[in-house]
């Protein structure tokens, strides 16, 4: 029942938002998303590791092929649900001060996206997973295309085609799996033993879809453009949540299913991940566009997560889980900072800014804490994850780990450069009128900052939540 | 439990101070902020003192856990606090010197717009520094390690409106991060092979042979990379001279007395590792002595009072690494201690001078200040004598011990160390003579305003001067038949790993002392002849030539790094972005799109739009399919 | 080949007849430009198929084929209705029923 409630609440919210008056759109949307969040928190506190009571929902859908509409919540799902449902209210709240047109449609779409994401993270059936996976694409496409900058339609179209191509290959893999297993249930699929050849085929189908969403170098060229062109709320959804679908997909739908193919392609993928780390950070060094800089830095951070996942060690996978949360939280905060700069000054070109620290000390403090998290300084949430990921990659190959570790240095270069250019120095005509945060902006930042510090000091809740699932998956994934 | 919360207060109070002042900085007056911040350092100092005395009286070390940080499988890291003999000595002088510098800052920073922000940063720094030395494991140490780097970034760029200063802060941070990567990789080796990061457990595991010699070597050298970053040794030292952009008390606290010695602390703490990796220790010694020499040469040509002191710090740190390199951990710590006193004193004295002459830092525009500011002069002179190694000041004992230890290991190291320390004497007295003797060379306007600094500034100077004078008694040389207090205090925890320290014969030891002292005196005499007798004043920057010019420009190391690392990196970044990303990768992606468009162009010509054609095509296709099946069957 | 006789006529004759009708239909569809004629030709083809179905139904004494023919006729009727409506509209817009005029869907 829990699962179905978590799925339906956002959709109900979306419906309400669509039907009720324009004036309270934001409040309704916020209320609905917070309700979902509260319910997922409630679920978290009643969650017992290993017990499935109330957390499974399954009803037959088609008999041939055997597909049932089934949702399941285990530790990993719950973690992703919590992330989704914590961040969605924050993302909705972040729009409080914006003046967008047609907000009814916008907030409906955001809530639909929340519902679809919840579906992705709960799906216990490959086809249901696929359906929700595609369902996520629709709202985010419209959000990015309709509320973005002038040239966003073209860019979003490219992103859409990119994502769709990947998904189609995944659909083929799903169909093959369903045919072989006789059912598309996750348990049947996990217990399959496939021939090496079909593993390879299925692997590539899934991999392409996941790798595009994440994205993994060299499938990343949609990312920076889309992040820049989309409205900030869209960018937040893309980077903090949609991206996690790919990582989650790797852990849930790829590692346990095709262990042979994974073992074969691990070296390539880890290398690609590490290349992404260095490549993304390196490009970020010279970026002047705030959002683009964040996009490339995200490319780097996520590359490390991918590399960690494919080490198939509990250190790597748990590090990835911790880092997924950290990355999700931090990018929302950082993009929100970019949004504030954009709202106040009309530009996100950091070379045009400066002197904001003096004008807006609170904003600067928050942004600095987020920058510290971006630098993965100890006691911020990104540190533990990065340490674990680097450690796991190091166990795989020391040289790769050192290469990936250069992110420690490069991140300092580009983030401090960004920080200095925007906040320090003397204020100029652009930043002259910069005023400090409003109440709703404070309210948006505070939960983010809280999570940055809390999970930095004490990441154990995350680790405890996912550890049993991760161990199971590693068992399935090791041949 | 009560006792534990008392010890936790050692690190908790400075953090509390940071939070209170940070949150209330607009609501509380500057004075309250200053007093609060100082108190938050004084109380930990008192607590640490009590622990120190209990240890002196044979009490046992304190070690307890606060919280489990993370556990994955059998890898687990706790927040743990360890107050053993080594960390107590470190925290004693961190809080002690820290407190004095807090006091000094109250007066020095008076009137600054961001006065309370400054104090919140200082408290934060003390917090992280204490975390660094009190943590019971490498990762905890790493928290402090990164944290002090962060505070250093804040404080170097404290006057954030100045872009140069911010750049200096950034440079310090990034360069430290290069070292941090090494530290982290070193931790990976330790963690993987010993299964723990806790010093006690790591030591046990290594004792049981958890790491092969090769692994030990790699781990130790990786950790040492971290130390070179934080302690400004070759090749990661160029940030320290630039770090002088910060307020002078910050230079005294962070960039002289405490933070930069973190690398040395780390090596001493890891002595169980290093003692088993003698090759790495050799490298440590060589890097140390090279840094000492290099910085001393550059220091002799600098004209900025703070830059001279900065290079002298690099040089002294180099000597400490030399001591580590010959396995003399206690000696290194001894020099860390004495150096903390006299170098902090030098910086505070320099701050006092700058305070008096209106912020001027160029010693060519000073001179004759002796008459105007006697206390500053006297304390500065004491510190200079100490750093030059003139008996009976503290620097003599610690430096002599380093040189004696080096002599036992390797005569060449001793010679180089001796040369470096002679140069130290020269440039320090060059500084003293140019600043305090002769006639004032600034303009008349500023001459009117020269004054002795207020009490709040001179008291810390005097206290530090006393400490710089008497601290030598902590480690009296063997020949005097007096106890080496520091060695005795630390021997329980360092005995297991220190190299066998055969004592030199008394005559040799006296000879070494004589040579060192004589050398220093000769250097001072040369400085005296050049700058007092001949009244020389260094030339304008442009007039330098030959070797002096090269040395003045720090051997163009900054330029070299810029040309070899920074600029190529920027080019590569542009190249990656504009060529690889936009043209190559995206080009391929777009080409896929274009290819499908092209294909569709070709295929769509078949759509003529004539119904008749479609019908014909349909019929023919039907015929074809039917024909195929007929023939097929 | 087993030749059956239906109402005095051999089944082969039915086959030939429907074949000829179908061929005429195909020829009509292909050769004519007038949409109405094409339409009639299509009907002819349908009926050729129906004829064949009925003939075989009789031969095997199986009525399901006749049910099928009923369906076909019903569908054909619906098709005529829709098709003629389209033609009327086409005529209104273009004043002609020549199919070559309709080339807007050229790719």
- How many distinct folded domains of chain B? 3
What fraction of the residues of chain B are assigned to beta strands by DSSP?
under 5%
Low-confidence stretches of chain C: none
Strand order of the largest sheet of chain B: 1-2
Share of residues in helices of chain B: over 70%
Number of strands of chain B: 2
Q: How would you briefly describe this protein structure?
A:
The complex is a heterotrimer of chains A (479), B (633) and C (107). Chain A contains 19 helices and two strands.
Notes on the structure:
The complex is a heterotrimer of chains A (479), B (633) and C (107). Chain A has a domain at 265-479. Chain A has 19 helices and 2 strands. Helix content of chain A is 75%, strand content 3%. Chain B has 633 residues and is mostly helical. Chain B has 3 domains: 1-136; 137-552, no CATH class; 559-632. In chain B, helix 8 (213-230) packs parallel to helix 13. In chain B, 55% of the residues are buried. Chain C has 3 helices and 2 strands, in the order ββααα. Chain C has helices spanning 11-31, 35-60, 64-94; strands at residues 5-6, 9-10. Chain C has a two-stranded antiparallel sheet. Chain C is elongated, with a radius of gyration of 18 Å. The termini of chain C are far apart. The interface between A and B is large, with 56 and 48 residues.
Which labels suit this protein?
heterotrimer; A: 479 residues; mainly alpha; two-stranded antiparallel sheet; 2 strands; C: 107 residues; Helix Hairpins; 3 helices; elongated
How are the elements arranged and paired?
The complex is a heterotrimer of chains A (479), B (633) and C (107).
Chain A (H helix, E strand, L loop, with lengths): L1 H18 L5 H21 L10 E7 L4 E6 L2 H19 L9 H20 L3 H22 L4 H30 L4 H5 L5 H18 L7 H9 L2 H23 L4 H26 L5 H20 L4 H32 L10 H4 L1 H14 L6 H16 L1 H26 L15 H19 L2 H18 L2
Helix pairs in contact in A: 1-2, 1-4, 2-3, 2-4, 3-4, 3-10, 3-13, 3-19, 4-5, 4-10, 5-6, 5-10, 6-8, 6-9, 8-10, 8-11, 9-10, 9-12, 10-12, 10-13, 11-12, 11-17, 12-13, 12-16, 12-17, 13-15, 13-16, 13-18, 13-19, 15-17, 15-18, 16-17, 16-18
Chain B lengths: L1 H22 L6 H27 L5 E11 L2 E9 L1 H24 L6 H20 L3 H19 L6 H32 L4 H9 L5 H18 L8 H4 L5 H10 L4 H8 L1 H4 L3 H22 L5 H21 L3 H28 L17 H15 L5 H16 L1 H26 L7 H6 L5 H16 L14 H10 L11 H28 L12 H7 L4 H48 L6 H22 L1
Helix pairs in contact in B: 1-2, 1-4, 2-3, 2-4, 3-4, 3-10, 3-15, 3-20, 4-5, 5-6, 5-10, 6-8, 8-11, 8-13, 10-15, 11-15, 13-14, 13-18, 14-15, 14-17, 14-18, 15-16, 15-17, 15-20, 15-21, 16-18, 16-20, 17-18, 17-22, 18-22
Chain C lengths: L4 E2 L2 E2 H21 L3 H26 L3 H31 L13
Helix pairs in contact in C: 1-2, 2-3
